[in-house]
Design a protein that fits this description.
The complex is a heterodimer of chains A (about 120) and B (about 120). Chain A is mostly beta strands and about 120 residues long. Helices cover about 0% and strands about 50% of the residues of chain A. In chain A, the strands form three sheets. In chain A, strands 2, 5, 6, 10, 11 and 12 form a six-stranded mixed β-sheet that branches. Chain A has a four-stranded antiparallel β-sheet with strand order 3-9-8-7, with no helix packed on it. In chain A, strands 1-4 form a two-stranded antiparallel ribbon. In chain A, strand 7 and strand 8 form a beta hairpin. In chain A, about 35% of the residues are buried. Chain B contains one helix and eleven strands, in the order E-E-E-E-E-E-E-E-E-H-E-E. In chain B, strands 2, 4, 5, 6, 9, 10 and 11 form a seven-stranded mixed β-sheet that branches. Classes of the chains: A mainly beta (about 120), B mainly beta (about 120). Chains A and B meet through strand 5 and strand 6 of A and strand 4, strand 5 and strand 9 of B.
Chain lengths: ~120, ~120
């Protein structure tokens, strides 16, 4: 069965610090990879996704993620965080071309950015 | 963008009562909606796949008689937690896929609702 690991459950950073959130998945086949963000009191929103092509994916709000197939990883990065990035971040994986997706989520990483 | 409305956003109920949670796609039609549950400090877990006009498909370990799902129209799916108990207290989230994406892009991401926090006392 697929699983997704997010090793950092809580991260606290100061504004302008750089961010990297780890995501590793266990699935040998071809996958799609996603990062979702949930701001306090809001719904899950798609931050970025990787389907194929360039393994370095640019998302919204200055986020990017790099797919390293050999490491089964899809880490999320941002060079300089802002207070407004305080949220919970979820990595998710699904099998490619399954149609009605069954996303497998990680446990989430709660990011707190102090001003 | 596509909006999924989930109602209520939070609910407190007494043990033994039933609670209905609605999931609506506001500006698109969804033949398929997904219901997830998130316990504290755990990941979102898929509970069931709701199919318009047919029976829902439940994941292993999810009791279909306890979590009743009805997908009566292309814009509405409901999850009813029957005879709720304190261990059912959780965060429930629905998601939906635009029916147009179903055929044009099998890999299109889902649209999520805001979630419903259920507390059973």
């Amino acid at each position: 069965a697929q699983s997704v690991s997010q090793h950092n459950h809580h991260v606290i950073l100061s504004e302008a610090a750089s961010l990297e959130l780890g995501c590793n998945y266990s699935y040998g086949g071809t996958v799609n990879l996603f990062w979702y963000v949930q701001y306090p009191g809001q719904h899950l929103q798609l931050l970025l996704k990787y389907f194929s092509g360039d393994p370095l994916v640019k998302g919204i709000k200055g986020f990017e993620a790099e797919f390293i197939k050999s490491k089964f990883s899809f880490n999320l990065r941002k060079p300089s965080v802002q207070w407004s990035d305080t949220a919970e971040y979820f990595c998710a994986v699904n099998k490619k071309n399954t149609g009605f997706q069954k996303l497998v989520f990680g446990t989430g990483t709660r990011l707190l950015v102090s001003p | 963008g596509a909006v999924v409305s989930q109602h209520p956003s939070w609910v407190i109920c007494k043990s033994g009562t039933s609670v209905k949670i609605e999931c609506r796609s506001l500006d698109f039609q969804a033949t398929t909606m997904f219901w997830y549950r998130q316990f504290p400090k755990q990941s979102l877990m898929l509970m069931a796949t709701s199919n318009e006009g047919s029976k829902a498909t439940y994941e292993q370990g999810v009791e279909k008689d306890k979590f009743l799902i009805n997908h009566a129209s292309l814009t509405l799916s409901t999850l009813t937690v029957t005879s709720a108990h304190p261990e059912d207290s959780s965060f429930y989230i629905c998601s939906a896929r635009d029916v147009r994406d179903t055929f044009s892009n099998l890999n299109s991401p889902l649209h999520f609702g805001n979630g419903t926090r259920l507390t059973v006392t």
